[in-house]
Amino acid sequence: MTLDAAPRLDVDRLLDDPGTRIIVCCGAGGVGKTTTAAALGVRAAERGRKTVVLTIDPARRLAQSMGIASLDNVPRRVEGILAGGRPDGDEPDGDRSAGDGSAGEAPDGEGPDGDRTDEDGTGRGGSAGGRDRDRRPGGELHAMMLDMKRTFDEIVVAHADAERARAILENPFYQSLSAGFAGTQEYMAMEKLGQLRARDEWDLIIVDTPPSRSALDFLDAPKRLGSFLDGKFIRVLMAPAKVGGRAGMKFLNAGMSVMTGTLSKLMGGQLLRDVQTFVAAMDTMFGGFRTRADATYRLLQAPGTAFLVVAAPERDALREAAYFVERLAAEDMPLAGLVLNRVHGSGAAGLSAERALGAAETLESENLENARIVDQGDGETASRAAESLGDGAPAGDSPAAGGGPDEAAPREDEDESAGNRPDSSGNGQDGPHGQDGPARRATADRLAAGLLRLHAERMQVLGREQHNRDRFTALHPEVPVAEVSALPGDVHDLAGLRAIGERLAADGSTPGAA
Amino acid sequence: MSRLHVVSGKGGTGKTTVAAALALALAEEGRRSLLVEVEGRQGIAQLFETEALPYEERKIAVAPGGGEVFALAIDAERALLDYLQMFYKLGGAGRALKKLGAIDFATTIAPGLRDVLLTGKACEAVRRKRKDGRPVYDHVVMDAPPTGRITRFLNVNDEVAGLARIGPIHNQAQAVMRVLKSPETAVHLVTLLEEMPVQETVDGVAELRAAGLPVGGIFINMVRPEILDEEALARAGGTERAAVAGALSRAGVGGARRGGRAERLVGPLLEQAGEHVERVRLESAQRKEIAGLGLPSRELELLSGGADLAGLYRLAKDIRKQGIPEAAA
Ligand SMILES: Nc1ncnc2c1ncn2[C@@H]1O[C@H](COP(=O)(O)OP(=O)(O)OP(=O)(O)O)[C@@H](O)[C@H]1O
Ligand SMILES: Nc1ncnc2c1ncn2[C@@H]1O[C@H](COP(=O)(O)OP(=O)(O)OP(=O)(O)O)[C@@H](O)[C@H]1O
Ligand SMILES: [Mg+2]
Ligand SMILES: [Mg+2]
User: Fold this and answer.
1) Does residue A406 share a domain with residue A296?
2) CA–CA distances in Å: residue A7 to residues A70, A253, A377, A473, A507
3) Which of A221, A229, A281, B299 is the most exposed place for a label (fewest CB within 10 A)?
């Protein structure tokens, strides 16, 4: 409906484009960044690209099923990636032996790369049918889980001689900074991204971002850490004379001595020595910490980088997404689109919440009545209710209450009068249950009432989600959107990731309706 | 009886909402509670639809029966400055240090220091007495950092031990620890009936217990009503489709015949029911996990209009009804 105003995000085109080298999945906490990143990784690999996914704090079961549960901070080959050209229906989810990702293995098919790009744009008919056709040989998936402390330690070891490195690693301030500073995780994710990019072993790097409440943290935190380590006060601690050489000198020295005295009084003797050791070590090692952060930041502005903003169709998440979209624009960072995750759909969207509730109430009150006066007619109620109903199109007329007279109505009426007489005959009309008594009918009524209430609840959710989506689209009509329907359970294996990948790439924007 | 209620949980599960509802619930019948936040996000002000809270306790709500809820956003920098002022009479030098980034530096480089200041302020409010010797606040509720950080946050003693072995910070940390580990404190965790938050809850409880911190209860938030159970859906299997169509038709949604509107609705409605039942099944698995913790649990409904002020009062009433969880002795 209204969402049609937003262009559709063509995920496969993004994944297939050899120019796409880095995809960053951002978004508010818990919206599905990690799931999306992993699903894109699986899809890209199965479409023939040599891909690495950098995940951050994945759910345990997901990490296990990808074989990256142990933290060793290097990418591991993921087993069970399906190469192209397999016969349809061959879905050896998960247990295909690894190491067969080589292109030569594929029996036939479209051959490596080549002229596929066209068929993507032109709506592939069915979603499920297109699966195997989508696969191409030559892809691989590697994945890793970021260990931020280890990444930090590695930087230290790589940039300092053994003795100094040990001194730093043992320093309590270093330890608390590397384990706990808000922003360390974001910085280390960027650092790792820089390292992976420098290795130049992969066609495509997909980056998950840390679970922060704000998507903006990913962009801001590294600068925070950089400017902290490069900051005024550290400069002062290191070389007061350098900063305050002029008039400020005296003041600074006064400040310093107060500070020094206060800190050692507050926290005890060894503290200041620790601070100074730490700062000195960091200073020589990361003279250009900020330069480093800036370099990684620039990588995010490079043409081969694409940001995907992930959001749930909830108010807060979409508001966050809108901020992020604006920020990316301000930073000249390329936005590929919005992934709207965990969207609900209904195969019966034509039946509005209000009508479903009304109908459920009808059944329930009748049920009560029937309990007392068994075998009392109800055809009246039914046709009365039917009068107020239009036979809505499968989707789209939801809020229009009291639907007008449309051509379907007469048929319904006919149907009612023929089919709805008291009890047994009412059922018997449609099935082999003619002889079932009122008890059976009461059961069916209760079940139907339950189904209707459930549907009403679903439609309320749909309505809220639609409203939130519309708000985003009104603010940012230019942003392409891909919708991913909510699966009933969690996503924690390759089959689940594949299913998410298919939804990401599908053109249908009304999930569940098909 | 617990007087300091610390509310943690996975990000986004409803810590702020539950903490606020709990503060309201605790303030009923003429009592007075203080709701504190420690992460500088002004979540309380947003929730209560008031302007940003200053570094000062102020009344933000009245509870049914005349009780009062006060709120305070604790700011580590301000707390440190106050602290320095109190002990060292720094005067302008304090401000100079702040300007230089020293305060920021100190609270950043030593997160443990920051935490002592934050928890210290909350503990001070718990212990504060009126002239007649009765406590100023009957209860203090803290909207705390998420599960992943809560144990480190509360275990300030260990955190600053490596940095400060003597001196007032050390003493302060010890005093704070005495309150936090006493039965006066209860640490509650908020979760949803989903795999990741529950996993985090289970891990969090284990960590808190290992650190000797008193765990209170589990708040299961945003619980959706179970409309159809598995049994009902099993009955909905193939043979009864026609009967369901008949019932839908009686309810007035259209014709029950083949191709009639009611008949066409059966498929999609049953599919939705199937998804619902699967969800209910997953949720009951999560409930079992939670039950395995052996802690009191409270269930709070998913408010269809979101957690606004009216919703907050509803949740508070519900908490009252179910009882306020205490830490096991
Ligand atoms: N479309 C979906 N349908 C059903 N469940 C989903 C879907 N997408 C994600 N999930 C589930 O939601 C949970 C959160 O997803 P995920 O871990 O990807 O979010 P995140 O944004 O990475 O969270 P965090 O901010 O904590 O890192 C997971 O349990 C995942 O399995
Ligand atoms: N019982 C509820 N019913 C409906 N919505 C709720 C409920 N509890 C919380 N919410 C909503 O969920 C969102 C998250 O809640 P809240 O801000 O309290 O979580 P939080 O754990 O404090 O998040 P954060 O980790 O960001 O601090 C808010 O939009 C809130 O209004
Ligand atoms: Mg994640
Ligand atoms: Mg909060």
Assistant:
1) no
2) 40, 60, 52, 10, 11
3) B299
A430 shares a domain with A308? no
Chain B partners within 8 Å of A59 (Cβ)? 195-196, 199
How far does CA A261 lie from the centroid of its chain? 50
Closest CA to A66 of A88, A100, A38: A38
B165-to-B162, B178, B194 alpha-carbon distances in Å? 7, 17, 42
Q: How many whole angstroms separate alpha carbon B184 and alpha carbon A120?
A: 63
Q: Decide if A112 is inside a domain.
A: no
Q: CA–CA separation, B12 vs B221, rounded Å?
A: 11
Strands B58-62 and B68-73: antiparallel
The number of domains in chain A is 2
User: Cα(A450)–Cα(B32) distance, rounded to whole angstroms?
Assistant: 44
| 3-class secondary-structure state, position A244 | helix
A300 inside domain: yes
Both tokens of A172, joined, read 């309590």
According to DSSP H, which parts of B162-260 are helical? 167-180, 195-210, 230-235, 241-250
- Along the 514 residues of chain A, how does pLDDT read in single tens digits? 444 578 999 999 999 999 999 999 999 888 999 999 999 999 999 999 999 999 998 888 899 988 888 767 899 999 999 876 443 334 444 433 333 333 333 333 333 433 333 333 333 333 343 455 667 778 899 999 999 889 888 888 887 788 888 888 888 778 877 776 667 788 888 889 988 998 999 999 999 998 877 778 788 776 776 667 666 676 666 654 444 444 444 555 555 566 666 655 655 556 667 777 777 776 666 655 666 667 778 888 888 999 999 999 988 889 989 999 999 999 899 999 999 999 999 999 999 999 999 999 999 887 766 655 544 444 444 433 333 333 333 333 333 333 333 333 333 333 333 333 333 333 334 444 444 567 778 888 888 999 999 999 999 999 999 999 999 999 999 999 999 999 877 888 999 999 999 999 986 444 443 3
For residue A380, give its domain range: 353-474
How far CA A14 is from CA of A11, A143, A302, in Å, comes to 5, 20, 15
| Residue A116 amino acid letter | R
**Ligand 2 neighbours by CB, cut-off 6 Å:** A 213, 316; B 9, 11-17, 43, 146, 221-222, 300, 302-303, 306-307
Please say whether the beta carbons of A25 and A37 come within 8 A: yes
* B163–A258 CB contact, under 8 Å: no
> How would you classify residue A346: left for phi > 0, otherwise alpha for psi between -120 and 50, otherwise beta?
beta
Which residues, other chains included, contact A347 with Cβ-Cβ below 8 Å and sequence gap of 6+? Answer: A394, A512, A513, B267, B268, B271, B272
| Separation of alpha carbons B25 and B317, rounded Å | 6
Structure tokens of A207? 């980056």
Tell me which chain A residues have a C-beta less than 8 angstroms from the C-beta of B307.
none
Residue A368 forms part of a structural domain? yes
- What CATH number was assigned to the domain covering residues B4-224+302-322? 3.40.50.300
Interface list for A 435-454 with B (CB within 8 A): 436, 440-441, 443-454
Q: Provide the sign of the torsion angle of the four alpha carbons A385, A390, A394, A398, taken in this order.
A: negative
Query: Which residue among A490, A494, A502 has the greatest number of ligand 1 atoms within 8 angstroms of its CB, and so is best to mutate?
Result: A490
DSSP B157-176: HHHHHTT-SSHHHHHHHHHH
What are φ and ψ of residue A102, in 5° steps? Answer: -65, 150
Q: Looking at the structure, do residues A25 and A163 belong to the same domain, yes or no? A: yes
Query: What pTM did the predictor assign?
Result: 0.80
